[in-house]
């Protein structure tokens, strides 16, 4: 499915908007679009988000994917009204939140552009992405403790890996918010920009990634992610295996040949 086909299908979405942006039209943009609910993450929204990410991932013309919200909220959390009457049995039988796996399973780089609130599930969605850029007024937090539950989509697992145990404990056990500057300082966010510049700068990042071999970018993403799944020794073995594997690709040969020849590489995704 081409990016043009994706845009033609856009009217089917009720809770998100999609677009293809960048000077080379190789960046998939997904905007969460429940402004009256501060982009609360209801199941229909996540089903649509998962489909859009999966479609962009399969589109060979797309180099990277951006997920964003609006100036008031990236996503202010899960839809509490939707889950209020859930039970342990229903959660287990239905695999509650299983749709979130579509984001973590994406092979292409996914970048979160966060303005406004990224709370609870919104913070967890941002952490599902590979890189987080934030507007200067962004607020992050895991306030589930305030309503008698805990994060259920990665908050207690990804947050300690990204910011350390002490900070993660403070955020999860108090429900307090942290601003963009503190989030950058603790390593949760890569960079902070003025609100009006955030999307522009995020697109620039996606375009920069898009100048490289899509195949090698995917392999590099797999290798970095492996660091959070294994011991250092196992991770180093995985990295070496992937590194060796690049020597079986045409793009590795083209990249090194272009460097020696002092010219720009012409990657073929092979």
Describe this entry's structure for a reader.
Helix content is 45%, strand content 15%. It is of the alpha/beta class and 270 residues long. It has two domains: 3-210, 2-enoyl-CoA Hydratase, Chain A, domain 1; 214-261, Lyase 2-enoyl-coa Hydratase, Chain  A, domain 2 (Orthogonal Bundle), CATH 1.10.12.10. The strands form two sheets. It has a six-stranded mixed sheet with strand order 1-2-3-5-7-10, with helices on both faces. Helix 2 links the parallel strand 2 and strand 3. The protein is globular. The protein starts with a helix and ends in a 9-residue tail after the last helix. The mean pLDDT is 94.
Attribute tags:
270 residues, alpha/beta, 2-enoyl-CoA Hydratase, Chain A, domain 1, Lyase 2-enoyl-coa Hydratase, Chain  A, domain 2, six-stranded mixed beta sheet, lyase, lipid metabolism, fatty acid metabolism, Enoyl-CoA_hydra_C, Enoyl-CoA_hydra/iso
């Amino acid at each position: 499915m081409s990016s043009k086909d994706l845009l033609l299908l856009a009217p089917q979405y009720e809770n998100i908007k999609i677009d293809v942006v960048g000077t080379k039209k190789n960046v998939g943009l997904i905007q969460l679009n429940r402004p009256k609910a501060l982009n609360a993450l209801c199941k229909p929204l996540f089903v649509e988000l998962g489909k859009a990410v999966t479609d962009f991932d399969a589109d060979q013309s797309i180099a990277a994917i951006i997920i964003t919200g609006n100036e008031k909220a990236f996503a202010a959390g899960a839809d509490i009204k939707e889950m209020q009457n859930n039970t342990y049995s229903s959660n287990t039988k239905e695999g509650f939140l299983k749709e979130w796996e579509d984001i973590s399973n994406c092979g292409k780089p996914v970048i979160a552009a966060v303005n406004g609130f990224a709370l609870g599930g919104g913070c967890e969605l941002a952490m599902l992405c590979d890189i987080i850029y934030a507007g200067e007024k962004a607020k992050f937090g895991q306030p589930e403790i305030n309503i008698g539950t805990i994060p259920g989509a990665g908050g207690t697992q990804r947050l300690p890996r990204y910011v350390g145990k002490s900070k993660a404990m403070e955020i999860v056990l108090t429900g307090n918010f942290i601003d963009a500057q503190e989030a950058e300082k603790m390593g949760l966010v890569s960079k902070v920009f003025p609100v009006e510049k955030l999307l522009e700068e995020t697109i620039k990042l996606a375009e920069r990634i898009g100048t490289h071999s899509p195949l090698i970018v995917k392999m590099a993403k797999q290798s970095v992610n492996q660091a959070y799944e294994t011991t250092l020794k196992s991770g180093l073995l995985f990295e070496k295996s992937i590194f060796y594997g690049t020597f079986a690709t045409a793009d590795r040969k083209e990249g090194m040949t272009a460097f020696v020849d002092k010219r720009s590489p012409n990657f073929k995704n092979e």
